[in-house]
Amino acid sequence: MSDRLVEPGAKRNSSDWRQSRWLILAELALFGLVFAADKIHLIPFSETPELFLLGWAALRLRKLRWRDIGFKRNRSWRSTLALGIGAGILMEAFELFVSQPLLIRLTGKLPDLSEFKEIQGNIKLSLLGLALIWTLAAFGEEMVWRGYLMNRLADLGDRTRLGWIVAMVAANVVFGFAHSYQGVTGIIDEGLMGLLLGLMYVGTGGSLAVPIIAHGVQDTVDLLLVFLGKYPGL
Questions:
Q1: How many CB atoms lie within 10 A of CB 139?
Q2: Which end of the chain, C or N, has fewer beta carbons within 10 A?
Q3: φ and ψ at 208, to 5 degrees?
Q4: How far apart are CA 24 and CA 135, in angstroms?
Q5: Ranges of residues in the chain whose predicted pLDDT is under 70
Q6: Cα distances (Å, whole numbers) of residue 194 to 127, 154, 184, 187, 189
Q7: pLDDT in tens, 31-60
Q8: Which of 69, 50, 70 is nearest to 59 (CA)?
Q9: pTM assigned to the model
């Protein structure tokens, strides 16, 4: 039996060494080392490419492809695009009008978005930002965090329903801390957005296409608001 995405509640065969818990723990340890190296600025710019390569190597070791953990459309491309775009817009509205204002009230701090201030009114930087949104953020982060990491954490719990719940929460708590440059409000808010993307992933039967599109759409709206100088608190 292959190590493909299994619906919550199903279990998988663990007799093959490629599916052993020791291999999972070794992969997670390497994931943690890359993450820590980024936090102490040993990795220039972004840890996403390194984590993507780690995920790719781990999949190849188990004779799997990205398609096996969800890099595929959900039903038809029309429904996939509609779900992704709609979910991205709803996520953006929820963040701007619900989660972020509530978190600002609770923490007393705005998210630190100073890294993006130079984008305001700058077409060249905005176009570069748009390219990075759809490569590093939408494709890269979804394949790494929702596709690879959530699956490997779920494997530790034998892919039971509880295992998937714990995996989703744990992966997206770490995802929130990956945005530590945004301060405490940004960490919590990004973790919450990651959780919503994780719910999309599981809710569409393990298709990464919908969260990739939703992530890209949400960040594109953010970029547009920053460019126009309309993003709250910037």
A1: 18
A2: N
A3: -80, -15
A4: 26
A5: 1-15
A6: 24, 16, 15, 10, 9
A7: 999 999 999 999 988 999 999 999 999 999
A8: 69
A9: 0.92
